[in-house]
Amino acid sequence: MGKASNGELRQELVAGLRRTLDEGHASAKEILTLTRNGIACARQLSAAMDGVVTCLHVAASQHFYPAVNPSQSERIAVVAVGGYGRGTLAPGSDVDLLFLFPHKQTAWGESVVEAMLYPLWDLKLKVGHSVRSVDDCIREARADMTIRTALLEARFLSGDRPLFEEMKRRFGAEVVEGTAQVFTEAKLAERETRVTRAGSSRYLVEPNVKDGKGGLRDLNTLFWIAKYAYRVEDPEDLVAAGLFDRKEMQMFQRSEEFLWRVRCWMHFITGRAEERLSFDLQRQVTAAIGYAGRSGQAPVERFMKAYFLVAKDVGDLTAIVCAALEARQQKPRATLTRLIGSFTKRKRVRALGHPDFTLQSQRLAVLDDDAFERDPVNLLRLYEIASRDDLAIHPDTSRLVTQSLRLVSTQLRNDPEANKIFLEILTARRSPEPVLRRMNESGLLGRFIPDFGRIVAMMQFNMYHHYTVDEHLIRSIGVLAEIDAGQLETEHPLANSIISTISNRRALYVALFLHDIAKGRPEDHSTAGAKIARKLGPRLGLTDAQTETAAWLVEHHLDMSTVAQSRDLGDPKTIESFAATVQTLERLKLLLILTIADIKAVGPGVWNGWKGQLLRTLYYETEIVLAGGHSAIERRARVERKQDALKERLGDWGEAERDAYLARHYPAYWIKVDPPRQEKHARFLRQAESEGRTTATMVETDQFRGITELTILAPDHPRLLAIVTGACAAAGGNIADAQIFTTTDGLVLDTISISRAFERDDDELRRAERIAAAIERALKGEIKIADLVAQRRAPPPRGQTFQVAPEVIIDNVLSARHTVLEVTGLDRPGLLYDLTTAIGKLNLNIASAHIATFGEKAVDVFYVTDLTNAKITSTARQLSIRKALLDVFTFDHEKAQASKARTPARA
């Protein structure tokens, strides 16, 4: 057959194979849709690929390069390895092949391999291939765990089967035999590295389905280890081998099917090998699988709860396998060692304080399998001893806890001793976080506190919360314990100094444990949570006063964060109103500590020093009111003290110059701004005047607070803040807060705080100076801010992931002098610019702005007056304001595109 006809045959072959693959994919998708079975889908995809590979081998070895008189060396076995070797493929999976030869590759073999690979590449498949002799396989498997694992799952596809059987026999005898412990340790270490890279918690709200903790790779690892140690070929054989009981085997199969179902849908929906279950994919996979909303939970939240429960089951299976392998690998000790070990163990058992517990391999265990049946309170005692003595719990005992959950009855829940033990665990001086997490993963925590069981594995579908609700609550207790132990003094100096002075420590721990326990209910979770606290407090042994304190903290756990981040802390009405809510200094202390722990446990990067400063300011201002101060006389006295302090700092100025400068600021300035910053402002204004400038900027970084400050001096003008926010938006600056002050001589002194973008100060300063320069140019009319913002803004994608209903609240009670506009909606680049522009067009003066972002949700608050410095009281005027601000969230795609088209290239 000539080369030309070979080429034509290859083209026809590729076209035919493309049809086979397309039909295979369509059939697999139909199976997934109709049967909802992820494993069946994955096996269908693998079977379709088997047909393609087998066909190619036949074509290459019998049509393109037939061996007329084949020698012993001209033999080949085509073998599936890795994931393909398991007989399961996702739509976007790699195809891993081993071309196996008896000895080194021959020219004939090289031609056959190439004739198979080129069509696979023409089909746009991701092919991982290796060409090895049997000796190569054995040698490389001994040296490389990845190759060893791939060969462990080798599956014959086509060619010389005796050659494949020889490789499998030698692999078992020369590689696997006697090396189970080494392989197990290597695989578990590899798993730790992998899950750390993918995100160490199995409760991350955008999990990696393949490589994340509790994902498919964890199940693969379990089977690799079990297959290697028990020498089984099918997961079903693990029951006969004694590794799993029938119920656990069903858990393995159910988890594997669910994860494959999710992964296959992810690949089908995206058209690629997408492994991260991102927010936008979660909605689509939820719809594809067919979840519906129920009991106040959205469909996507129900689907993700199912996902996290499966991830938890995978974690349980991991513990079971590790315990079994540990038991297999124990070696008998010499007689003397056994005697010494036995004596030490008996001594330690007595120290444990209860006859039903012992130590096994230096881990806490029950004396026998009837320990929990004899006394169900032992379920709680187990974790109390583990916490008290800092002991790991033996996996077999953790397994027994899960199998004994039926013993958690109403009688046990109401048992005074059981509740006393639980409260000891929750409030332990050592960190209770790891023990609470163990209790949660065994299922005991949700059974003992049924309201907690309702939020296990529950996610909140937003970008703000990084973890499931149960994981967030447990992490928050960990943060509180660190503050309690004095470990966070540098980061939280105020909380560190006051926690030793509180008298309601137990109420604080209980409140933090319960603060989000009512999430997912139709009722407001703070109100519903307070009811749960009032019901649970007496059961746990709290006094009536402690129970009421815990309930109050749960009901008001968001108040301090909300006021600190979205209210004007220099406005006396803000402080007086918050003080009226708090009422006592003890509650103020408790609420501050709880708020810090809550925010820090939301996720990495959510807490920063800027939020810390806002909370401290609110605390100190409220403390004065609760102590009986903060009257008009007290405020005047504070202004005078600050003015005197600034006079001392400006000792190099003349008396007349200092007095003239002090007269330029209104009282609000002296109350809100600290003395070091007042001195910087004074010298900044003096320098600008000496240079004859009425428009100037100053930048300063603050690593502790995690922000960079831009100070802007300019003539007062209604649209000034819009220009400043627009310049920040155009330069990619994320504004955290804005302090706005007007001087008595008609200038504006604004301080804009933007979130840091760089670790190094010099990089951050260069960025801030670019933003400051853009602000100056915009204020002078040299650049058009609207065009720059339009360039930065992108239209939201069709069917965008998150929906936040816009809301505008207009309040004349929160401030004595200003109308407060609170605007909530979906965040996007340029939103603050659009809002401030709209406010400017409404002829409103902005006295201060407070910007808070919670993931995709923006909450922007403006203190405003009309042009006569009066509140907006007219109902018609309020309606027009509300309409104008709501219109900002109505995004017109065509206008955005037209604006972009008009933007000059230089901008």
From TrEMBL:
- Tell me yes or no: is Magnesium among this UniProt entry's keywords: yes
Task: List where the protein spans the membrane.
Answer: none
Activity regulation reads:
Uridylyltransferase (UTase) activity is inhibited by glutamine, while glutamine activates uridylyl-removing (UR) activity.
Domain of life of the organism encoding this protein: Bacteria
Annotated GO biological processes are:
regulation of nitrogen utilization
Matching entries from NCBIfam families are given as: PRK05092.1, UTase_glnD
- Quote the record's domain comment: Has four distinct domains: an N-terminal nucleotidyltransferase (NT) domain responsible for UTase activity, a central HD domain that encodes UR activity, and two C-terminal ACT domains that seem to have a role in glutamine sensing.
Q: What is this protein called?
A: Bifunctional uridylyltransferase/uridylyl-removing enzyme
The organism's taxonomy opens as:
Bacteria, Pseudomonadati, Pseudomonadota, Alphaproteobacteria, Hyphomicrobiales
